[in-house]
């Protein structure tokens, strides 16, 4: 991570760094599949009409155009299209909008509730900064129903993510959970009807502090000093168990929607507290800004790295997608894989044991042994041991040095010693007779290991 | 494959189709890693200057621009940039150009010869047609040296690809191999100096036939009738072993570069013939059009699907990349994964046993059993068995029907029968007592299987 990417906001990893990222992706995939999520991918481009449908104008979008067409326009041989023509193509900025379109288009071929995971690159033209790239990988899980979706799935996705994140070498994390119904009902209950405006102000709490938010609420949403105080009192509630319910009730606000939200959040937090203790907290300050969630909302902080922002966020939509009078409610969470991996690498939180998959480097005694050496490597590979073969019979010292430089732990010598073959652990220097049909390295050498740094 | 993608040229797979694609990617990755290739990824965008550096103007490029900037230009608040401004960003159209840049940028951090695989999406704005998409996945392997690279690597990469493709359910394939030095030397030897022009014409042989190519050679390259005949005689040579050498010599042409090419190709074909019999052939008609190869060139056809075009192509570059007076020769091959998977799916060459990873669906007898059911599912998952849990205690018949509709093979019943638990194979209807700590499905049910259709 001493290197700077040659294009700001477009990080690229060295092989050993990629081993760490691949380990994260493999671990997530394994957890998601064990929980019955099917993997899909959607195309990288959507039409602008599709991308901006949910009013996500705040997301910086990258438009895409055929260079040949651009040249025709520049030469006056083709009429220019408007930059925001809804038919124009653009790169997706998240995986939720494309997934919603996929569900609508393929509804007749999917079995609902449909559980899917999706791990792909997304693009945003924002100013690059710590924790924010212009190209980054997200790993999403969503469960989407046809017409209805049990609130139990709100707990299900949180438990899956707690397990997935818990399997990564990232230390402690905390999923902070709130409920939009609770918050919006409460605001209405105290007489604030511009609930979106209140949420937008509350969303700034961590950045600007309660006093500034109180000012914003009064100036921008027209709240009285008491209303601002009450909204902030709600946002200050944070409990590991369901005791937040009593704390909310103590604020003395009556609202049906708020009650619905309290019941839903109590169910989620109660179950998380029992099944994944220490992983989740009811945090009534979580707003999730402009995103169009309608119930449970989630954010996740890495303990000790709170200023990094959320590494895994999401929520429930009453209508993730709709098709005619058919609606598809959904609930899901999205991990910012690149943000997480950048932090893991920059803070040496995780390290790869080597940069290459190779376990064994088969040395050559003579150039004409290459085919025999390939035979040995072939036997090792059939047994799942990654092996490569030298191409020229240089001095053994030089061949060992090459393996060492690439991080390959073992060098194999053909026809050396009494048994015909010998293998050398070049880290310890130990050399012993070996049979390609039976020799096996210790488990920790078989594939590159990623461990907490 | 009855469905049409909603954006022409941008295919998307249903979950069961994605299982097939994922199987292809997993199989390739495993083979590449067993042969010591390290996985890397490069960013999706390059500058136009970088992309068009090798003169690849024939590739249709997608340019990328921030929508906010486009709007500023349209409103006259920002000066327009030229469509072919070299600093403009565009999506990569292959993985070779980005890899060459990556090697140059990171040369100080890589150990050479550097073996890497790279499996990513690429984009080309070409007219979509059978076998050609605008967004598609490529899987590349390359070996790149610092200053020099043994010709043995030309065989190495071909053997790896023969093994990788041989592990896929795609039937027979044939790697057709030629050598640029052989061809160019031969053309020079018969007095044709515009060797690029000759290659361009020969490249059309399969599409337009020998008579048309003879006409092209005379009209466009200025060849005489005899020269055209000789060039076609060379292109007609095709042998499984090294007997092509004698056939070329019989044409009576003398040229040093040709001799070098003959030696290199004989080495490649001789070794392929011994180590991967039936997988490769010397085919002196292979030209690889405008690509800037300097030695061995490869194309691969799927036997019985020749009209699909090449599914795996590549070659050797004397200078894949350069940095000051340092050059990085490389040799590699690229699989057109999307092209291959499209064919596998459209011709039912391969089929997934199910669309979901889930092995066991844990049914509910009562709503309050959900936590106990999650415990059972948790034990199964810890043992590597993918499991999901019902959310409501509907009638068993309805729960079984749900599992059946999603393709889940087993339904688990809590507290049923004397032993406490029972599991039902819903395909056979067999139901038996089971212990979550010990029960294991047959290996073929553990993960979705992809088999020849």
Task: Please tag this protein with its features.
nine-stranded mixed sheet; BirA Bifunctional Protein, domain 2; 453 residues; elongated; five-stranded mixed sheet; 37% helix; Rossmann fold; homodimer; alpha+beta
Mean pLDDT of chain A, nearest integer? Answer: 94
CATH architecture of the largest domain in chain A: 2-Layer Sandwich
Strand order of the largest sheet of chain A: 1-5-6-12-11-10-7-9-8
| DSSP helical segment count of chain A | 16
Describe the overall structure:
Two copies of one chain form a homodimer. Chain A is of the alpha+beta class and 453 residues long. Chain A has three domains: 279 residues, BirA Bifunctional Protein, domain 2; 47 residues, no CATH class; 93 residues, Anticodon-binding domain (Rossmann fold, 3-Layer(aba) Sandwich). Helix content of chain A is 37%, strand content 22%. Chain A is built from 16 helices and 19 strands. Chain A has a nine-stranded mixed beta sheet with strand order 1-5-6-12-11-10-7-9-8. In chain A, strands 15-14-16-17-18 form a five-stranded mixed beta sheet, with helices on both faces. In chain A, helix 1 crosses helix 13 and helix 5 packs parallel to helix 12. Chain A is elongated. The two termini of chain A are 14 Å apart.
